[in-house]
Amino acid sequence: MPEDKDICPPWVLREYALLADGERGALVDPHGRIVWLCAPRWHSDAVFSSLIGGNGYFAVEPVDRWRVWGGYYEDGTLIRVSRWVTADSVIECRDALAMPASADRLVLLRRMRVERGQARLRLSLDPRPGFGTDRMREPRLHGRTWAARAGALRLRLLGAHRASWDPESGLRGEFRLGEGEEHDLVLELATADAEDALDPGELWRRTEEEWRRAIPDCSALVAPRDAYAVLRGLTSSSGGMVAAATTSLPERANTGRTYDYRFAWLRDQCYAGLAVAAHGPHPLFDNAVRFTAERVLADGDGVHPAYTVDGGPVPKERRLPLPGYPGGGDRVGNYAANQFQLDTFGEALQLFAAAARLDRDTERAVGVALDAVQAHWKRPDAGLWELEDRWWTHSRLSVVCGLRRIAEVMPGPVGRRCAETADVVYAETRRRCLRPDGRWSRAADDDGPEAALLLPLARGCPPADDPSNAITRAYVEEALAEDGYLYRFDHPGIPLGEAEGAFLLCGFTMALATHHLGDREGALRWFERTRSACGPSGLFAEEYDVRQRQLRGNLPQAFVHALLLECAVRLKDASGTER
Hints:
With about 575 residues, the chain is α+β, with helices and mostly antiparallel strands. About 30% of the residues lie in helices and about 20% in strands.
């Protein structure tokens, strides 16, 4: 625990902003304190873990406590500008993780500037590797650069040569800036000693240039480029995209529902790839195809739902000796990585089918996924929500959708096998899961409403003219919608908003399904309502507490931003033409 309990008090989740470079991410609170950062990679131990009650943070903030705060992202980037107004000054702090990034070295850039008046700023840097259990050792000042080390990590910090390093509390210092003056801090954490100079100007120039290259023109969309920036920031050079930057943030207070999402779920990766493909060619789509195909080829019908971003196994769950975020826990690793989730193969096939052309490895991955579906489609699975193994309807319809898409783009024996298998799976699913009144059941043994069914419906399974689409969509809305937001499924005996938060993925899939059925006005209503469920930074978590207007769960949730992007693409372009 931090010695001074009020150093980094927790904020509600909507107030945090994200910095990310593809290989790792940091959360910044409104006071300019970086309270979460794992190094060197997403799934590494945290160096700053104050977010979940541990030690370690990096603060640059006005000494004057009489202030109001704000902030914004520079357009099409994850370059975050925090802004404070005090009685006598206006101060900005520009933060970014430097790009292009490497897996073994992160560089954090912080540039302070006084827009008006005079300001006194406080610097506090307390790196604590191992989720707060270790300290940086042997701190030494070389000219204007501090250096220290802990285990495999090497630290360098430029711009704080007038500060002092205390063995117990880390680096502390203050500095003054006049109107128009700037001051740069550059923090490097790497797995090897580095000799190159930390040049703030050059690092900022390359970072700005990389963001300009990474984010396409989105002026024709009904939403800005924020979703692209988040997806790019969460995607490694290896192709893997983490589900979220954090672990252990509660979906519901004190219920034990805290999970580690610092891994790449293949399903989420496919959602992101399909969203990008709807907009046009982009490296994020190529990365998704490559990473997914590699995993399918490597593991065949034993493919895991989730991997580390470099394709490694997800570690087993374990607890940390930390209090956790209020209402949350202290969990790392994820048990769901060893589940069987049939819909993963369906989403992978849909992703492969969206490619302009299939290279040899992707064609081989199609064959492996087809074999896996044929061998296991009758087997109960954990489904989209990673629950108990059952015969989930959504999983089968997702597989049918993927098989039919591949049949359309791969003529020949493989395409025919896909079409024939799709017909067999669909016929049996229809027999077991379609009610006499034309509504799809949640599972073969569960008649309840299920928002997951909206996604295959939006993707064209069943066909748009099938009456079950409109019947199912209407029932899901009637049973699971409140105040314009949508929940996943009902919890018998518990009101929707008390059982869990509204599920933002479901709100966006409702928009897509409604649009697919021809109701564009209704789709736009769902889209706009759902995309209002973010904080000032524009980031979405997995769930939204409608009554309290609070984010719930890990932050930011990649698949929510993916579906936001797909909705923005499909609902409208600049000329008002539907896509």
